[in-house]
Every structure is written in C-alpha cells, then in structure tokens.
Write a structure and sequence with these properties.
Layout: E1 2-5, E2 15-18, H1 22-30, E3 47-49, E4 52-54, E5 63-71, E6 74-85, E7 88-99, H2 106-117, E8 127-131, E9 134-139, E10 142-148, E11 151-157, H3 164-172, E12 174-176
Antiparallel strand pairs: 1-2, 3-4, 4-12, 5-6, 6-7, 7-11, 8-9, 9-10, 10-11
Length: about 180
C-alpha cells in the first residue's frame, strides 16, 4: 500500500491509503505510454472511474492509483496518475467522479464543490462552460462538470505538462459506465 500525501487539488490535508484495483494494477505494470506507440496521442484503452468510463486519456501519464472515499453526503471515486521525479512523485492527472444528492444541479455542484476544495480565489478563475449540454466550470488546470443530477466529474492536470485541450479531450471521452 502506498500513501498519497494530501491531494492538493481537492484541498485535503490528510494521508490517504491508495489501493489499486485489478485494472489499475495491470496499468501500473505497463507503466506510462511511451512516445511513438500506437497510443502516443492518448491512451486507447478505456478507463473506468466510479460510474464513468473514459475512452481517452493523454499520453505520458505515470502510474495510476485508485481510491474511494466520502465527504459529507458525497461519494468520491478517484484515480490519480503520478510520475516519479528526482524529488519524489508529481501528480499528472487527478480524475474524480462524485455522486450524491447534494449535486442536484449545476449551481448546487458549483457551490458544494468550490466550498469543498477551498482553493484560494487568487489561484483560480472558474469560468462557466458547457460539457455535453450540462453546466461545468473551467480554470487553468481543472474542469469540473455535472453529468446528470447526482453525478459529476472533476479533471485536474499538471498544467506544466498538459493543456486545457487535454482537459476537454478527457471530458469529451467520458460517459456513464454501463452496469
């Protein structure tokens, strides 16, 4: 078991145990996608996080770790891709699926999620956007949006390595998973 020290994108200041799912464990063995492979412009294999399936992720992501937790009345399913650096580990992508009655509409999502994250106003400038006809908000490193009442997604990337176009690409390729 590996411990992830505080997920800054969510404003958590705790150590979270990270347990890999069989799919995540298989992806960990495979490691990051190498440039020049068939998936050099993104991973072709689908990834499921909570109630969502993502058919595209940007190339060059590190090793995934998945975990579930709850905060208040909202359940979280998260996968974090990290790359090893000389100084330790850095988060490449943090993909979170949120579910709960508190996320009843766009305004409820915005109010609940921004309060939960507690990101300093000088660090973010949330701009309203539309994702698949549903309300969402975009800032430099993050896109979060309502999928349907009670289900939302937050995507955060390392802005020094990935762009807003990558945030949109992930969101465009995210669909509710079939049961």
């Amino acid at each position: 078991m590996r411990m992830v020290a505080g997920v800054a994108a969510l404003g958590l200041a705790v150590l979270l145990p990270v347990f890999g799912s069989p799919a995540a464990d298989a992806a960990t063995v495979a490691g990051p996608v190498a440039a020049g492979t068939a998936a050099a412009n993104g991973r072709a294999l689908p990834t499921t996080v909570g109630a969502m399936r993502f058919s595209w992720l940007p190339a060059g992501l590190g090793q995934p770790s998945s975990f579930d937790y709850s905060y208040g009345s909202v359940d979280f399913s998260s996968t974090v891709w990290e790359s090893e650096t000389a100084d330790g580990w850095q988060v490449d992508l943090h993909l979170t699926v949120l579910s709960g009655a508190a996320l009843s509409d766009g305004q409820a999502l915005y109010d609940w999620f921004t309060d939960y994250q507690q990101r300093p106003p000088e660090d973010v400038d949330y701009r309203p956007v539309t994702v698949r006809g549903q309300p969402g908000w975009l800032t430099g490193d993050q896109l979060f949006y309502l999928v349907r009442p009670g289900l939302a997604v937050s995507i955060t990337v390392d802005p020094s390595r990935w762009s807003t176009a990558d945030l949109w690409g992930i969101a465009r390729h995210g669909h509710p998973a079939r049961a």
